[in-house]
Amino acid sequence: MGKHVLLVEDEPNIIEAIRFILTRDGWRVSTHSDGVDAAAVIRAAAPDVVVLDVMLPGRSGFEILQELRATEATRALPVLMLTARSQARDREMAERYGASRFLTKPFANTEIVAALREMAGL
Amino acid sequence: MSRSALTGSRIRERRMLGGVKQADLARQVGVSASYLNLIEHNRRRIGDALLRQIAEALGVEAAVLTEGAEAALLDGLRDAAAVAAEGGADGEAPELDRIEEFVGRFPGWARLLSARHGRVALLERTVAALSDRIAHDPVLSSALHEVLSALTGVRSAAAILADTEDLEPEWRLRFQGNLSADADRLALGAEALVAYLDGPAGTETALASPLEEVEGWLAARGHHLPEVETGAATADALIGGAFDTLSARRIAAALVERYAADAQRLPLVPFRAALAAAAGDPAAVAAHFGVDLAAVLRRVASLPEQAGAGLVICDGAGALTFRKPTEGFGLPRFGAGCPLWPLYQALSRPMVPLRATVEMAGRTPRRYRTYAICQQVRPAGFDAPQVLEATMLVLPETGAKTGPAEPVGPTCRICPREACPARREPSILMEEF
Lengths: 122, 433
Prior knowledge:
- The structure holds two protein chains of two kinds.
- Chain A is an alpha/beta fold.
- In chain A, helix 1 links the parallel strand 1 and strand 2.
- Chain A has five helices and five strands.
- Chain B is flat.
- The N and C termini of chain B lie far apart (70 Å).
- By secondary structure, chain B is an alpha+beta fold.
- The interface between A and B is medium-sized, with 29 and 34 residues.
């Protein structure tokens, strides 16, 4: 069984593409699309790595990341932040709140695979 | 280095400009050429009497030699050096200890360098402002998000189709469908973005509507007009040639005249005192001065210390006729706002003051205290149409989120509240393709 990645993203086609490429790369992929309960879902799923979109319905990815970093169980969980904007402000916020990596949309499939492999120590 | 040192360089510059030999000038003012040489090279301080003599001999005012326009120039150059140091500029650092000598000996180069630095700073501010617009303009931000999300879908699906040799037919069909849907979505998103950036067709300027021109003009003044407060300027004098279009001038004139009327009824000093005594309750302030509530709401939003307060005014049809934005409370550039705004609730209940705490949907939901009232624009007359106007003051709440808050959004098109009962059109944030 491969490493477990939890993808928190609300764009169906992006979810499908990422799920496809990661599954073929040997990952076990689960997904979640709502920001409101994302932190609880992540804690319950206890994945090896999280891919977290910044712009989610109900709650921003930054708020979710803050909660993860404030919780003992998820304080060191590798989190790859995705954003559709390349502004320095978003990048700074991601770094300030403790994102492990940061990827700007539109990213290449190979980029996300390489980032996750590195984060999971593969 | 003192100003007297710079004076020596200026004397030298002026003398050389006038084609006067150092020895001749020295003889004329009764000093030795070697002493004048020391003065010109900033190695001797010059006394007032000798300065006056030299100035007279060179045909300039003494102040030109002692003061000149170099102060601003020096500030500009020092700023340029500081910025270069902050940016970790490569190479040798500017010789700040010789900056006055530089200005004195090479005024043309100094002015050029300072002007270039000023230009760079202006461009950097422009870039920052545009970047800020992307960050804070909810429509632009969402439109970009839509385009980039669709582009991500296109890129991922295209790469899967191109790079996966053993792709099963079922998956191939699926990603081809996704690719097609995302391509359509991308085209629509790009079209919407271009339409937004181009502005509505038929306006007198491609960059902004007349109302936006006026809003920009007011924003540049912090929505506070001291000249009007003191009665020192009329609306016409204040507006002057500030606007290119007649529409903008008319809108601005109406707003300034209303501002003047509000300032007259609610003078600044007693108004601030009454507002403080009423603990910020606009209704109590209105009762204190015997004025309508909308005037108090407008007045609060015009106070310099209330720069963070937003104000929205709409007519009886719900069209926004005035927008003073407040951070995080999305105000649509075109069309109506969220039907759940107290502004529109007030419209359906004329003359009933409404106070509500609202929570604006967004990446980071924020709370605001709102005060709204709908009033007749002018006194009602028999057989005359009733013209209504609603006004809403929006004050950001600080501290912990406590108590209930009414959920609202910016405008349906970019609102993520999918199940909102007041939704009039789908949001681009949740459309499925």
